[in-house]
User: Fold this.
Amino acid sequence: MYMKTGTKEKQISRRLVLKHGQKRVTVKRQRSYNLMLDSACKHFPNIPKDVVIFQTNQLDICDGYYVDITAEIWSDVIDLLNIVEVTQRAEMTLPIPLPLDASAISLPDNQSAPSQVNEQDSSYAPKIFYKCFQY
Assistant:
């Protein structure tokens, strides 16, 4: 394979280095994102296939930062890379919702929370706020 850059022709290796942590492995350069995904999962079995992400910092557009390589652009950039970082998508945990039950809210002096608040009566909220923070 050859890639033309300006007036020079540069030979593109048929191999690519996949890297995860300290482990590096040379693999066949796959033009198909899914085939490269299969190869990454074969060599890094501790990463589930559904969370694998390919990243690089080798493209000029990256400005030195690691960026995700999506399936949509894989075939456009694969010939420009020598090393691809194999990482996994971070799992986001959702916060635990607070109870909406008024009886679960404890107020000072054994007062219960009102079941309904008149939105037009704004004088009620400051009183509750003040009582909660009285010493």
The chain is about 20% helix and 25% strand. Residues 6 and 80 are 14 Å apart (CA to CA).
